[in-house]
Amino acid sequence: MVRSFLRNLHTGPLALQLRRFVVVGAVTAGIQQVLLWFFINVAGLFYLLAALIAIEITIILSYILNNAWTFQVTQNTGTVEYLVGLLKTNVVRGTAIPIQLGILYALVESGALDPLVAGAGAVEPLVASGWIEPLVAAVGPIEPLVANAVAIVVSGIYRYVLDAKWTWGQ
Which DSSP string corresponds to 116-152? Predict the structure, then answer.
């Protein structure tokens, strides 16, 4: 049963759709990371508020891209259908926001990422040379970005299943 499921992901009827969903997810995850960095380091927002805003922006972008490309066979067309689909995906993905923010908070506040940050000491000679210091200072804290990447992956499976079933009726 598991073997059949995995084979269908590779060559089955949903394989192309799943690959497209992953591509859209990867693109919007990258955009979400850039937005998160911007809201924390440039706008000065608290990382959880910054994440919430970045998530909502990418929810809308994900819907636009998935509707046009991933689910083009069952695409929501017409103004009312399109807006209902946008509302549905906001409900689906909105229910994933507490999952994503919870993982983000747990990883940042627990210190679980401290070994990763401590591992950055391996680049100490480069920092000491003085040429990488402005770059390190510009990036700011990496803990929220790493934690958010983990949270995106974990909540992504949940989002795909609900979006495919409810938003696009598959």
Answer: HHHHGGGGHHHHHTSSSHHHHHHH---HHHHHHHHHH
